[in-house]
Specification:
With 245 residues, the chain is α+β, with helices and mostly antiparallel strands. The protein has one domain. The chain has helices at 3-8, 12-22, 32-59, 83-94, 102-110, 139-146, 151-160, 173-176, 208-217, 229-238; strands at 76-77, 113-115, 135-136, 166-170, 185-188, 198-200, 206-207. The strands form 2 sheets. Strands 4-5-6-7 form a 4-stranded antiparallel β-sheet. Strands 1-2-3 form a 3-stranded antiparallel β-sheet. It is globular. The mean pLDDT is 94.
Length: 245
């Protein structure tokens, strides 16, 4: 039975545990095609789930950002044009500092980007405060950041401090609530090719795929108010529609 067969049977966490145990063998001819199929299926499910969550929150009058001035402020951003070519360009610039994990690359190829933060510029009072909605910067936003004059210097400083460099992907839960908070949620670059890597500065101390799994299990949020009536009513409507990742 292939890893994808296991995944489709519902053994999703077990499959990723097996992939992690493979280590560098995951990129061998024997396993790589199967591994890519699993991560591809995961990101298809993430994309589907985000659409379901977005629709359900709209029905709850959730106040999303709607500005199209920047892809950062679009709740659901599709993959950018020529995404594989643009991703390759981005990888080439990142390569001197580390490798992008397969999970993030396939996220950008299949999902795109998302920002489910509440728009406090329109409505400054909300029952959804503190829930830490999902937000993953779209690829074009990362590329714009990379073009800034000090990007390379920042990456080099991280390395000189003895850390693996990272790519910032989302504001922390306080910044999402229009409050000064801590460092951005980021994905760690790895020294060699990897299927997934750590999602840092987020309280659950997991990987990028682990974070996405947690978010999907909670209906789009990292810090759900279980027991709070508005969230519970929303979750009762949405959770059975979400695909397991």
């Amino acid at each position: 039975m292939t890893l994808l067969d296991q995944y489709l049977k519902g053994e999703t966490e077990q499959v990723y545990s097996e992939i992690e145990k493979l280590g560098s063998k995951a990129f061998s001819n024997e396993y790589y095609g199967d591994v890519v199929s699993v991560v591809t299926e995961t990101m298809r499910r993430v994309s589907y789930n985000l659409q379901v969550i977005h629709h359900a929150l709209q029905e709850c009058n959730y106040q999303f950002y709607t500005s199209e001035e920047s892809s950062w402020y679009i709740p659901l951003s599709p993959p950018i044009a020529n995404v594989k070519k643009r991703l390759q360009e981005y990888e080439e610039k990142v390569h001197p500092f580390g490798s992008l994990p397969l999970s993030l690359k396939l996220f950008y190829e299949i999902v795109g980007g998302c920002n489910f933060a509440w728009d406090y510029t329109k409505v400054d009072n909300t029952d959804w405060e503190g829930l830490d909605p999902i937000q993953i910067a779209p690829l074009d936003a990362l590329m714009d950041e990379q073009d800034s004059s000090d990007w390379k210097d920042i990456m080099q400083e991280i390395i000189e401090d003895g850390n693996l460099p990272w790519i910032e992907l989302a504001a922390d839960y306080l910044h999402k609530d229009n409050i000064s908070g801590g460092p951005a949620y980021s994905i760690e670059l790895t020294k060699t090719a990897s299927v997934d890597s750590r999602f840092i500065n987020e309280e659950h101390e997991t990987t990028f795929i682990g974070y996405l799994r947690l978010i999907m299990q909670n209906g789009g949020f990292g810090r759900p108010y279980v027991g709070e009536e508005k969230y519970d009513l929303y979750y009762q409507k949405v959770h059975s529609k979400l695909l397991k990742i």
